[in-house]
Amino acid sequence: MTEVLTGATVRKWIEKTAEVMAENRSYLTELDSAIGDADHGNNMDRGYKVVVEKLPEGDDIGALLKAVSMALISKVGAAAGSLYGTMFLQASKPLIGKSEIGFEETAQFFDDVVAGVKLRGKSDVGPCPSRRQAASTARTRRSAPMRSASWMRSMR
Ligand SMILES: [Mg+2]
């Protein structure tokens, strides 16, 4: 049995992320108010609304991820737009023209997410929970194919 991640599933992830950003806009802004200028929830919600509007037709996974990158860079702005935009841009590059990917490319996707954050954030995997999670997910995808198959089914 071959498990694959399809462009349709990636589109659903992106649309679901937009819903989660909208639902948690106030909470993200509340968290940002403790350390920043209290605009993160509003910025991410605004960015993801544009992401959904700008998603291209079709099931090209790289094109979908690149569209996320471009929308976040142009609409979120500041450090978060640049960080998330670079992350999605890095991860999109090897996937341009692909409408489905298997375990190895899915693991590579998470490696590229980590690489994109490192590149823009000038940091390494360490205390940041999101970087640790992405790095851990990449390792799991490679080391546990059965768990990966279950995970890929759960993402549909
Ligand atoms: Mg801010």
Q: What does the radius of gyration come to?
A: 15 Å
Q: Biggest sheet, strands in spatial order?
A: 1-2
- Could you name the CATH homologous superfamily? DhaL domain
* Main sheet characteristics: 2 strands, antiparallel
Number of helical segments?
A: 8
Number of strands: 2
For the record, the CATH architecture stands as Alpha Horseshoe
Order of helices and strands: EHHHHHEHHH
Shape: globular
Strand fraction band?
under 5%
Bound molecules: magnesium ion
Distance between the termini: 16 Å
Structural class: mainly alpha
Helix content: over 70%
CATH class bucket:
Mainly Alpha
Low-pLDDT windows of residues: none
CATH topology: Serine Threonine Protein Phosphatase 5, Tetratricopeptide repeat
Give the domain tally.
Answer: 1
Please, what is the average pLDDT?
Answer: 86
Overview in brief:
With 156 residues, this protein is an all-alpha fold.
Descriptive overview:
- By secondary structure, this protein is mostly helical.
- It has eight helices and two strands, in the order βαααααβααα.
- The chain has a two-stranded antiparallel ribbon.
- The longest helix is centred in the last third of the chain and has 19 residues.
- The model has no long low-confidence stretch (mean pLDDT 86).
- Bound molecules: magnesium ion.
- Magnesium ion binds next to loops.
